[in-house]
Design brief:
Elements (H helix, E strand, L loop, with lengths): L5 H32 L5 H20 L7 H4 L1 H16 L10 H33 L7 H58 L3 E5 L5 E4 L1 H6 L12 E2 L6 E2 L5 H6 L4 E8 L7 E9 L10 E7 L1 H36 L6 H28 L13 E4 H18 L3 E7 L3 E4 L1 H17 L6 E8 L3 E8 L6 H4 L10 H4 L9 H11 L3 E6 L5 E8 L7
Helix pairs in contact: 1-2, 1-5, 2-4, 4-5, 5-6, 9-10, 11-12, 12-15
Length: 539
């Protein structure tokens, strides 16, 4: 048996004191009743046994049981058994044998089944000895019931104590595991806190009730809505000039449960030391207990935004400076080409110069169109009028037909059904020109471009399909990004800026429509433009 721990020793002392106190109280009651009734036969022997019981109480209180060996503890209940035997001998008819149950229960609790056997045999031996040696002791049912009762109570106490010790061991193991789990959780929490505080982007966890439960140091700096003097910092939209009310600020919207991705806002008024933040709000996966809340990630993109604006300003400035001389060059080239006295070689060289100047002017126009856009859409004014979209498509086909003929490409326009919609005809023509130009440019010689116009429930559909090389799945997600060109196109001799599709998409969305593509590598491409018959707000 393992040595008892300090807590077990302290519990042992308490049980000794409690057992002896109860025994002393019961003994005192028995002594008083026996004297009053006159059942005491040998007074000196009776009071000697009584004194021995009370001496045990004093010993239980005064002796340092924690520092004593375990076997010494067993001496005290043995003394109690002997003292009760002496009292029973001196007062045979008083029924004081029931007092044996107190030391028997305590022995069974402390020493287990071995103590139960020992106390049962001791009590049974004393009862048999007194029955034989004392003429006043007569055989009765109590002669058998008393030892059995003592043994039964001691056994029950032993089993209860054993079960209690097993439960205590189990609880201690569980407590140890819980402490270890708590320590691990604390270490992980400290590690996560250290990592979150080390990164330069803000992270905030929001409870389902909209409260901030976890934040890192960067969040407090980036999304702080007050300056060093406690004044409220103004918040502006991505354009840097549209003020955002406090209830529409990213953190307020995230706390109300709204979800958004990489939304750019400016903190600080124009002309001040301001910062641009890219804020993302997402909902966390729910559990069986309910909704888990959300998380807000904020990143300082001031440098990127300033660089982007500087690039756009530079591109716009250079493009404006280039467009004027290019327009003049093309005009003079056209005048020169109108001279019928030019030689064949000179005309060919002038036509090459005119084509390249026109291509450069188109590139400048595309760059200017891109520079005039904002993050939220295409920044143009639309002149919406009832228009036959099929007529616009037919006109665009007629304009590109000579170039298609030079490339050996046939344009199929048999499915141009009349379709009226409220659109800006010039902008729709720009979209069709871009799509037709790409279809002709990337189609192999001898290929076909199929153009169709139809009317669906509440929209007009324009489809342009080609027999070109198609677009791989990995590049389709970036197809409408500005300046994007596929690997196959970049490695070919076909020129382009990568702006046509981006501009076309913005123009279509400005009408409240959408442009999509169905393609696969080596299987051509079909671009579909859907324009609403009636104008609706752009997304």
């Amino acid at each position: 048996m393992a040595p008892p721990t300090s807590s077990e020793r302290f519990g042992l002392r308490r049980s000794i004191v409690a057992s002896q106190t109860l025994l002393a109280a019961a003994t005192l009651l028995g002594v008083i009743v026996s004297i009053v009734v006159g059942q005491v036969v040998h007074a000196s022997l009776f009071f000697a046994g009584t004194a021995l019981v009370f001496a045990g109480v004093i010993a239980a209180v005064l002796l340092p049981w924690r520092s004593m060996p375990r076997w010494v503890v067993g001496v005290l209940p043995i003394i109690d058994v002997v003292a009760i035997a002496v009292m029973r001998e001196s007062a045979p008819l008083a029924g004081l044998g029931l007092l044996w149950t107190f030391p028997a229960i305590w022995i069974g609790t402390v020493f287990g089944l071995r103590g139960v056997v020992a106390v049962s045999l001791t009590v049974s031996g004393v009862v048999v000895h007194q029955l034989i040696a004392d003429d006043l002791q007569r055989f009765a049912s109590s002669t058998l019931v008393l030892p059995f009762t003592v043994a039964a109570l001691a056994s029950m106490a032993a089993l209860t104590a054993r079960r209690g010790r097993a439960q205590r061991v189990l609880l201690e193991k569980q407590s140890t595991e819980l402490r270890r789990a708590l320590d691990r959780a604390r270490r992980q929490e400290d590690l996560v806190t250290e990592v979150l505080d080390a990164v330069d982007f803000g992270v905030t966890r929001i409870t389902p009730d909209g409260e901030l439960s976890v934040t890192n140091a960067a969040h407090g700096f980036l999304l702080n809505s007050a300056d060093a003097f406690g004044r409220e910092i103004a918040v502006f939209a991505a354009d840097g000039s549209t003020a955002i009310p406090p209830e529409a600020a990213p953190l307020a919207r995230a706390r109300s449960g709204e979800v958004f991705e990489a939304e750019v806002v400016w903190y600080g008024s124009p002309g001040e030391d301001r910062r641009a933040l890219s804020v993302t709000s997402r909902r966390l996966p729910g559990s069986a207990a309910g909704e888990a809340g959300g998380v807000v990630v904020s990143r300082d993109v001031t440098v990127e935004e300033q660089a982007r604006r500087a690039r756009e300003d530079l591109v716009a400035s250079v493009s404006h400076e280039l467009r004027t001389p290019l327009t003049s060059i093309i005009g003079y080239l056209e005048l020169a080409l109108d001279d019928e006295s030019l030689g064949h070689g000179t005309r060919d060289r002038l036509e090459v110069a005119e084509r390249n100047a026109s291509r450069l002017l188109e590139l400048v126009a595309d760059i200017l169109a891109v520079s005039s856009t904002s993050r939220e859409g295409f920044g143009v004014e639309l002149d919406l009028r009832p228009t036959d979209v099929s007529a616009i498509v037919r006109s665009a086909i007629e304009s590109i037909a000579p170039r298609a003929h030079d490339h050996g490409i046939r344009i199929d326009m048999d499915e141009l059904a009349p379709a009226r919609a409220l659109v800006d005809g010039r902008r729709v023509r720009q979209v069709i020109d871009n799509l037709l130009s790409n279809a002709v440019k990337y189609n192999p010689r001898g290929g076909t471009v199929a153009v169709s116009v139809g009317v669906e429930a509440d929209s007009v559909t324009i489809a342009i399909a080609d027999d070109g090389p198609g677009i791989g799945a990995s590049e389709q997600t970036r197809l409408f990004e500005r300046f994007f060109r596929g690997d196959a196109v970049r490695n070919s001799s076909t020129h382009g800026s990568g702006l046509g599709l981006a501009i076309s998409r913005d123009l279509v969305r400005a009408h409240g429509g959408e442009i999509t593509v169905q393609t696969a590598a080596g299987d051509g491409a079909t671009f579909t433009v859907r324009l609403p018959c009636e104008p609706r707000e752009t997304p």
